[in-house]
Amino acid sequence: MPHHEVQSEDKILFFKKEYISEFVYGGIDGAITTFAVVAGAEGASLGIAVVIILGLANLIADGFSMSVGNFFSTKAQRDNFDRHRAREYWEVDNLGEIEKEEIRQIYATKGFKGELLNQVVEVITSDKDVWVDTMMKEELEMTKDDKTPIKTASVTFISFILVGSIPLLAYIFAGLDSGIAGAELFVYSSVLTGIALTIVGALKSIVTERNIMAGIAETLLLGGLAATLAFFVGDVLESVFM
């Protein structure tokens, strides 16, 4: 029974909890940017084929770009942690007394004193790994993130593609001769995007531990503003160049 409880705490729906933030922000970015492309194309009165082409091109290019950025950001954080950790090992090996005194000062400021302080210092400094971990956390305020660059980038890309494709679904089905009238496509796309942003906004609230309704409203507002701006830009550009 305890094993199942740990499993439920480690996952939200079918996502590992530590990666849900990548899924959320990849999904929000994907839905908003793709819907902005759709809105801009609609404002410029472009054809269904053009909307699909622009939307899919944006989806792949932006999704890849975002995942690459996520990969290098996560890798840089891990490299920075490893570099500081290696330096702490060197200092423990070569400046042991100074490092031991730093441990003493750290725990003295926490209220330890006398024999208890001596025991704490002795226990921590008797194990080099514990010693270094303590210095990393207490002195440098750095903890290792277990998320790997490959996994964070993959989750970001997958969520960007999955959620970001939703605004295009109405146009893709229309392109397959589903019988949907041209004037209705943008409405269908708007509704589908709203549903997607509502779900992802709720997940974002879980990640940030905020009120769910506030998270949904914020996500919908940002998506609506981006789409409105793109629609009017497309409308203006059409009147100027077409």
UniProtKB/TrEMBL annotation:
Cross-referenced Pfam families: VIT1
Sections of the chain in a coiled coil: none
Domain of life the protein comes from: Bacteria
GO molecular-function terms, A-Z: manganese ion transmembrane transporter activity
CC terms in the record's Gene Ontology section: endomembrane system
Keywords: Membrane, Transmembrane, Transmembrane helix
One example of a Gene Ontology biological process annotation: intracellular manganese ion homeostasis
UniProt KW Transmembrane helix keyword: yes
Keyword Transmembrane on entry: yes
Cell compartment(s), UniProt: Endomembrane system
Transmembrane segment boundaries: 23-41, 47-73, 152-173, 185-203, 215-234
Membrane topology: Multi-pass membrane protein
Name under which the protein is recorded: Predicted Fe2+/Mn2+ transporter, VIT1/CCC1 family
Annotated source species: Pontibacter lucknowensis
Phylogenetic placement of the source organism: Bacteria, Pseudomonadati, Bacteroidota, Cytophagia, Cytophagales
